[in-house]
Amino acid sequence: MDSQSSSVTKSFAVAGMSCSHCEKAVREAAEQVPGVSSAVVDLKGGRATVSFDPGATTPAAIAAAIREAGYEATEASSGGASGRW
Predict the structure, then answer these.
(1) pTM for this model (two decimals)
(2) 70, 80 in Cβ contact below 8 A?
(3) 3/1 Cα distance (integer angstroms)
(4) Quick one: 80 exposed, middle or buried, by C-beta within 10 A (0-12, 13-18, 19+)?
(5) Which pLDDT belongs to residue 77?
(6) Has domain 4-75 been given CATH number 2.40.160.20?
(7) Nearest C-alpha neighbor of 8 from the set 61, 46, 45
(8) Which of 10-14, 37-41, 76-80 shows the lowest per-residue confidence on average (mean pLDDT)?
(9) Fewer CB within 10 Å, N side or C side of the chain?
């Protein structure tokens, strides 16, 4: 519990969500990945914003977990998120 400041936040484009159950499923899939500290899912915007420890996981692993839950997920390129919650 000492690498709190090395947390990174990335956004993912998520397709296939149609209801609040989908939103919850995507959030839970992302949060089950070791190293993920939080996930916020925007159903209407079709995106998930995930905070994680880059030493413990990767954006590809998070996207794979979301895909395994049944949704399309790709890392969204966002210009300038500096890891501040």
Answers:
(1) 0.83
(2) no
(3) 6
(4) exposed
(5) 72
(6) no
(7) 61
(8) 76-80
(9) N
